[in-house]
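Researcher: I'm preparing a figure for a lab meeting and need a structural model of a single chain. I don't have an experimental structure, so a prediction will have to do for now. The sequence is pasted below. Please return the structure as tokens so I can convert it later.
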Amino acid sequence: MDTANFLFVSADAALITDLAWQVRREGHDVKYYIEAESDREIGDGFVPKTDDWRAEVDWADVIIFDDIWVGSDIGTGELAQELRAEGKAVVGGTPNTDRLEEDRGYAMEVLEDHGVNTVEHHVFHEFDAGIKHVQQNPAPYVIKPLGEVQNVKRLLYVGNEDDGSDVVDVLRAYKKAWGHRMKGFQLQRKVDGVEIAICGFFDGNEFVDRVNFNFEHKKLFPGNIGPSTGEMGTSMFWAGKNRLFEETFGKIEGWLADEGYVGSIDINCIVNETGIYPLEFTPRFGYPTIALQEESIESSTAEFFYDLAHGNKPEPEVHGGYQIAVRVVLPPFPFDDEKTYDENSRNAAVVFQTDDREGIHLEDTKQVDGQWRVAGESGMPIVVTGKGETMGAAREQAYDRIDNIVMPNMYYRDDIGERWVDGDGDRLQAWGYLGP
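Model: Understood. Here is the structure written out token by token.
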């Protein structure tokens, strides 16, 4: 394709630096806007910046939003919809698709209205009502906060007790500690099985033929132990529109077309021998999923997103095996503690023992005089990826790359992809979800 102008907009945290960097390395013109003052140094030295993204709209051939928020008054879905109405090519959502993530009850209604099976779920705005429901209907439940605190990952709680007693105890604690901010929550019946996310790319009219299937690793420590984080790593593969796709996204494709949605959309599910049970939507890029998707799209990334934004039926060439991404982090991640960050991580050097940067992806990083340094305030400098014909080979490549990185105090999970090797893949195949 000819050289094109790409405008990247981070309306809150700077999440999409790596995609902007990749598009620039492919020879296209890039401008990157970051709203959050504390994050504006992220990407410095890697991509050109702008202080006013609206002033660049006419310049841009493609506008890409990285998340669903812009402050508290307007979502990026509304902005994207307005820009598309003006004739701009935009990767971004709509007000209704933004709502799929922020209002889990609404998301379940959309699925049910289109004939998609859902797990039993109830939305409560009073803690006592939720406690009473669990006591009257004893079972293990998952607590999912709604509204402004839903992104506080440590508040998501997965119950373990068959009588729901631990869920009751947690709700009582939340009432005391979070009652002033946590205005609602969803109780979702816990279902056992394989957790898998189905990720499709939608061009405003239909899904791209290649579908991404990924496995999130949200807990901080190996073995799925510790506090929840945004994500510690992801394993994935690409396939066609198999049963997993057809029984979920295949049923809401018309709804997304009516919305005019453009971009990545992910639905996380629990799958077992009795069915597919969607849990939640991510109507935007996933992080660090997008870095791994970039790594596994073997044709031009820029051309893929240009075609996606223009409704040109993109046909990406993707890696035919397996891929993993590992998030490498520093203190105080996943918590906020300015003193700890200042003492351990701020401006820390990212040192490479080889000249090879293959599989190294940016998160909260800047470049000063050729030296990679930690930027921002979150302690998430890089993502390291690997790919191979087997999940084991992808793991080996990723962790070999990590062995060549030096950052004092860095930590990461060393078990990304193991669940697939240990049986998740065999179970999905035996249950008939993956096809031949």
